[in-house]
Amino acid sequence: MVRITELTRIELESKGIEPLRFNRKRTNGYIRGFNLSGVIRGLICIRNRGCRGKAPGNRDPGVSDTPRPEYNELSYSPKRKRTLKVTTTSERISKLTSNHHLSMTPNPRVIYAKSPGDGAPIPGEHLVSDTSRTIDLDSVPLNGGFLTKTLVLSPEPYMRDRMRDPSIPSYCPTFVLGEPIIGPGVVVVVRSEKEGVNVGDYMYGQTTWEAYCVQPYIEGRVRWDPKNWAPYTVNLDDAVPLRVVPNPNGAFPLTTYCNLLGTPGLTAFVGFEALAEAKAGETIFVSSGASGVGSVVIQLAKLKGLKVITSVGSEAKISYVRSIGADIAFNYKTRDYSLALNEHGPIDIYWDNVGGPALEAAIDATNRLGRIICCGSVADYNVAPEKRYGIKNTTYIFRKSLIIRGLLLADVDPSYTGRFFAEVPALVAQGKIVGQEFVTDGIENAPQAFVNMLKDGNDAVGKPVIAVAQS
């Protein structure tokens, strides 16, 4: 057992070598297991070739962040040479950080950045594609919930109303600025701590517009307090909760859950069955007949034996709605609503997806005791309240004893929802109700796809959907 002298310690440190790095057990100032002659030979060796390290005074106290030579060769005996790798703190931190990033997965999302006010949203200004986020799929806390991967998203017209100024009352709360927008979609479960939700389950319902999400989602969720909203405001975040849906196993694409078997199909079925009071031989006018909701209403009406008139926005869409059963179809961009309905009416039922001039023309053309179902008002969504179309023939409502009903899924008897899931999938499987989707690939293109849907911005036929990922 040999005590290392103070002179020896200084010699070691002056050459950039810390004695405690020899990895020998040290007790009461002694280092066990050293061959003194080997240490001395090592010092002589260092003297002869010059010191390549830094003196202690030029290093940070305690820990060196200045790289020393990668190897310090210390001769412990005349016959044996060992190497000692010296790593700095910064190198160790860099290695740990690098390994951490390897486990992170990109989590792109669509952010609600600013209210559009009067006019359509502008991609990159009001709806922003954000690629800065990442997520650790293996260790992100679930807090009793479950982690989902987004497969398909469904842009819907009502989502535009959630982009208004919060001071303007409406039937739905606004989106949260700086957070992902929320809407219907198809997801698959990646991890789960929730009973009844299993890895690999497909689910459909409200979700955030991002690649991965811990459910129930927190980001973007409105802090619901009825005192902060108009008395007729509905909490849409809970109106269509995620529910497990059957794996189609190739029978139909997953996009069908965002069309015929999703919110559009459910809205059409529930509204038609609960409110239309349709009878064979009657005539129904459906505005925006090529939309997800409108196309299903057309087919339900034909199954009931009704005559169907519909309006669309292009010649290609005229061909499409005729292929699914519409008797009369016209392009509202080239033909006035009133002229078309005067020629092909009168009507007994009007399914309103548009509002504005279409609703006014339908009131004129509706028979006594007619039914009007107001499902949407896409003509007004991008227009400031004070600039919206003013209907001038409301006196016909009482003169004809018309029944006008607004439609929100949250207000309809839940039994109709049960009937939908019991009846409509079978009709789809039998080909009695058919649909078509216009697919946009990539969540980075979601803002533009949403705007195109609002503005009827292309001649593409089918319910707009966004394919985010493969299952």
UniProtKB/TrEMBL annotation:
Residue ranges of coiled coil: none
UniProtKB keywords: Oxidoreductase
Pfam families xrefs: ADH_N_2, ADH_zinc_N
Database matches in InterPro entries: ADH-like_C (IPR013149), ADH_N_2 (IPR041694), ER (IPR020843), GroES-like_sf (IPR011032), MDR_fam (IPR045010), NAD(P)-bd_dom_sf (IPR036291)
Gene Ontology molecular functions: oxidoreductase activity, acting on the CH-CH group of donors, NAD or NADP as acceptor
Domain Enoyl reductase (ER), first and last residues per copy: 164-466
Family matches, as CDD domains: PGDH (cd05288)
Protein name: Enoyl reductase (ER) domain-containing protein
